Model the fold of this input.
Amino acid sequence: MNPYIDAMRPKLSDSDYKKLCAISIPKVHEFIAKSADLCNAEHIFICSDSQEDKDYIRNQAITTKEEAHLNIKGHTVHFDGYHDQGRDREATKYLVPKRVFLSKALNQIDRQEGLAEVKGTLRDSMTGRTMIARFLSLGPTNSVFTILGLQCTDSWYVAHSEDLLYRSGYKVFTQSSPDTDFLRVLHSSGKLTERMVSEEYNKKRIYIDYMDNTIYSVNTQYAGNSIGFKKLAFRLAIRKANTEGWLAEHMMLMGVHGPGGRKTYFAGAFPSACGKTSTAMLPGETILGDDIAYIREIDSVARAVNVESGIFGIIKDVNPVDDVSIYNVLHEPGEIIFSNVLIKDGKPYWLGMGCELPEDGINFSGKWHKGKKDEAGNEIPAAHKNARYAVTLTALDNCDPELENPQGVELKGIMYGGRDAKAYVPVQQSFDWDHGIIAYGASLETETTFATIGEEGVPEINMMSIQDFISIPLGKNVRNNLDFGKKVEKPPVVFGVNYFLKDKIGNYLNDPKDKHVWVKWMELRVHGEVDAIQTPTGYIPEYEDLRKLFKQVRNKDYTKAEYVAQFSIRVQENMAKIKRVRKFYKKNVTYTPEVVFWVLNQQYERLLNAKEKYGNYISPEKFKELS
Ligand code: SPV
Ligand code: MN
Done:
């Protein structure tokens, strides 16, 4: 007799009972039973990942009005509440045991206090509702990378999204031994309005209990807060990676196609809304992942997998000129969930889609017309900037064929990029692994964007673009990255990219599509097929190589003047950047490895020497002469 299954029996249909009994992991039964009891769910639905179960979830999302059909077959729309349109940093906290203190930059609460609070908020939240249990696999199944996850939720939209974004895990759970470890998520949308959005956004809580590998999320539906396997489990994975000696990163993965049919795999870390997905989707290249990667040393080689199997992508600015393949996918029949777009006559519209938008319709504010204002008197845009689409990767014609390879792909290059208007050149290669990790990854500076709730455009350091998700001392995270380079025979080549460099009057110096040229240059550099110029901040491209690549890739005549404007070293700005980074590490970070300051100081010295000889603004031609 299993007391947990017994306790659940009245809430389970015969077939759900059987599905649950097929799993012999007692902790699974315990978690589902305790969750259903705490939230007072009326029924429990066990998703076995059969087509029938998946169809049921999809239909329930429509029946409960969490989603609505759109004109094109397979397309649906979901809305989140007006105040629930992004990841909520303030409401997201780590539960820390007494006398433990994570870095100052991390939001935390006493574990007992936090557990009491969040469980109090979850209590009875599913009265009269069904709780869905979903079993998923992070990373390909049957692989050294695999991490299993179980989510209990009362949202059919969340359960449906998980179909598109993650690999099925039910079968693996049924085949696993009783002591199998897995991550747990309990989510409830809480009280709902008649529009089926979370009403009590002031009581939103997203608490991460790393002592018990469990996440609690309540009074929110926005996927980044509610789909536990996105950024919530990611925080737990970072801890696991930290103890086991591998890396869990906020990185896209792509295959870059080089001369002679060669394919070179790159990972790229960018904060949200800084070009990560659009880089991974560059036409002619293949996308392996757009958000989270696990990286391990296997036989002395750095290998990576995509943790997810779908994309929860920003839809703003997806247009038929810049993003052909995803634009087409979004207009063809197939399973897609649009969120927080504008709907008119069964068609979705979004900002920057390259056509006129209707003047009225339904959007994240409800019934909308042009000029509508919110309570604070601000004009409500047609669609939210953080409106998104969820689609499985295999729906894309440029999905990389190695997606399910249990060994992952061999990583040859890593790029780091943020919104840096002033300092870093558009692309540069580090002198070595440590320099790249420190000067580009650990020093990544950016501006806040619409992907998190709060003010936009606030400058901040976002270490490896992972700052929001780090669950270990920040200095330890840098150390782990530095150490990883020593474990592999040939560490991936590290690059810093910056798509957001501006001129003195505030104009961007590059077209967003220029990133394709930088990517191709990096691919050639990995194979040592182009030379580069040494500068105080890294190796930069030669004009002639870029000229050729601009012609090949973009059919554009790239001028020397453009090159000089983009690749001049801005000494003052770079020195100021180093000062900010040093201050950040001194003030906020514990356990910073000494080498961080050493590398930064060296870079400062190089800049100072250059400034004394050549001034504040040094043309790449000057450095070419010197090298
Ligand atoms: C991000 O904001 O980094 C995302 C979307 O990838 S989510 O984490 O789901 O909010
Ligand atoms: Mn992300």
Notes: The pocket of manganese (II) ion (ligand 2) is lined by residues 250, 272, 291 (CB under 6 Å). The longest strand covers residues 130-138. The mean pLDDT is 96.
